[in-house]
Amino acid sequence: MPDTPDPAQVHPSTRPELTNVTFLSTVVRSPLIEIGEYTYYDDPDGAAEFQSRNVLYNYGPAKLRIGRFCALATGTRFIMPAGDHPMIGCATYPFTIFGGDWTQATRDIATGLPSKSDTVVGNDVWFGRDTTIMPGVHIGDGAIIATGAVVTGDIPAYGIAGGNPARVIHRRFYDADVELLQRIAWWNWPIQAITDHVRTIMAGHPKELAALARREGLLDA
């Protein structure tokens, strides 16, 4: 077996200064949150509390889905659709949540409001410190979300987004290489294959990684 981090271990790093790094799949229990193996959150003040502190308004049908091998810096937050207020009339005040006559008079309005879909994050996505992801956003594989960004719309695979509202400010690779990387999908390889080729995954060109994957039978010709 390879000498690699155990995805079932809460604090996977052997470096004592990195006890603030937590594999999220080991601590998240909500059925509304799905997180892939090796995705971590780095927070010196309670990374294990990500579910309650960083996924806000987490009730209702919409889910948060995060892929494998993502890196979330301190303060990364996801706003879920239940936090939305009505915007169909004169007021945005959520009268329905307070009970009594207000609820009776507005329940059908509240339950009939359109709702955003799941918030979906791909694989190998890096979130900088204090990023905020708004409801229903889709972020593609390999994207980078810059520090302090507020993501209000979809971010394509391997895009670098920053600002408020966030916009794509750079693409990490040309479209053909992005398509190739998504076909390679190294994050779905067996852990032994990832370990054997981690240097190329980390520092190689997409075409170099593709050639390697073909030799290993990990990518169709």
UniProtKB/TrEMBL annotation:
It is an enzyme of class 2 (transferase). It comes from the Bacteria. InterPro entries: Hexapep, Trans_hexapeptide_repeat, Trimer_LpxA-like_sf. GO terms for molecular function: acyltransferase activity. Keywords: Acyltransferase, Transferase. Gene3D superfamilies: Hexapeptide repeat proteins. CDD domains: LbH_XAT. Transmembrane segments: none annotated. Its EC number is 2.3.1.-. This is Virginiamycin A acetyltransferase.
